[in-house]
Each structure stands twice: as structure tokens, then as C-alpha cells.
Design brief:
Blueprint (H helix, E strand, L loop, with lengths): L6 H9 L7 H12 L5 E2 L2 E2 L2 E2 L6 E3 L4 E6 L19 H24 L3 E6 L6 H13 L5
Parallel strand pairs: 5-6
Antiparallel strand pairs: 1-4, 2-3, 4-5
Length: 144
């Protein structure tokens, strides 16, 4: 059985987890680029930074895509519902706060006239379905 991590080691491990250019994000970017879509990265738009720093910004279409890790953003899939045993209260609070922040940022983007799509890490298991979902989102014309 593995030794328990010290708080210092756990902190070091957590500091190595990236928020940008993650594997799931890179897979979505590669898929869309191969389809001919062009985008800006990490919340950059002509008018400056967008709320929540979306991973992909399609300014001409007024659409943004977030690529979220299931655990970190408390998705309702199996990975997102995994509850850590160590420091359980901390993780519950942190992940709930992240989910609430995501909802607030999405609402702000929608108020500002942006269409928002969230791609979950678990969706990468079915690339064909993901590709269809991304195409449908990007091809859909917004209501007038």
C-alpha cells in the first residue's frame, strides 16, 4: 500500500496541474483546427478578456467553448462525482465554489451576447459524438 502524501507533497502535486493547454483542451483544439475552424485562446476577444477566460473564442460567431475536467468542475459523470476521502470538506467546498463560479461566468457571457458550450473531459471518450456536437454548436445561427 502506498504511503500517504504529506501536505507539502500534495501541495506540490496540485501546483503541477495546469489550467491551460491541458490534454483535453489540446484534443478539442486539434479536432476543430483540422475541420478548418480558427479561434482565439483563453478568453481573448477583440474587446479584451472575457469572463471565465473561455478556452476557445470564436469572436466572429460570438461563441465560446470551455473544456472542463470532470473532477475539477464537479460534472455529474462518474469521475466528477468521485469524492476524495482525504480532506473531504475542503474538496467539497472547493469544487462547489468552482461550479458556482462557472455558472456565474456563463450567465455573464450569455448576458453579453455570447453563446457558450461546455465540453466535458468524459466526452472525449467518443470523438465522433463530440465532433458532431461541436459542429452543431458552431454551425447553429443564434436567434435574432
Amino acid at each position: 500500500m502506498a504511503d500517504k502524501l504529506t501536505p507539502e507533497r500534495r501541495s506540490w502535486n496540485m501546483s503541477r496541474i495546469r489550467g491551460k493547454n491541458t490534454k483535453p483542451e489540446m484534443l478539442v483544439r486539434k479536432l476543430l483546427h483540422a475541420k478548418g475552424y480558427r479561434y482565439r485562446l483563453h478568453g481573448s476577444a477583440a474587446g479584451g478578456k472575457l469572463p471565465g477566460n473561455p478556452d476557445l473564442v470564436f469572436a466572429g460567431r460570438h461563441k465560446v467553448i470551455f473544456v472542463n475536467g470532470c473532477f475539477w468542475h464537479f460534472h455529474d459523470c462518474r469521475a466528477g462525482q468521485h469524492a476524495p476521502q482525504a480532506n473531504a470538506e475542503f474538496w467539497e467546498t472547493k469544487r462547489t465554489r468552482t461550479r458556482n463560479r462557472d455558472a456565474e461566468q456563463r450567465l455573464q457571457l450569455e448576458r453579453d451576447g455570447w453563446e457558450v458550450l461546455t465540453v466535458w473531459e468524459c466526452e472525449l471518450k467518443d470523438p465522433s459524438a463530440l465532433e458532431d456536437r461541436l459542429e452543431a454548436f458552431l454551425q447553429r445561427t443564434p436567434p435574432a
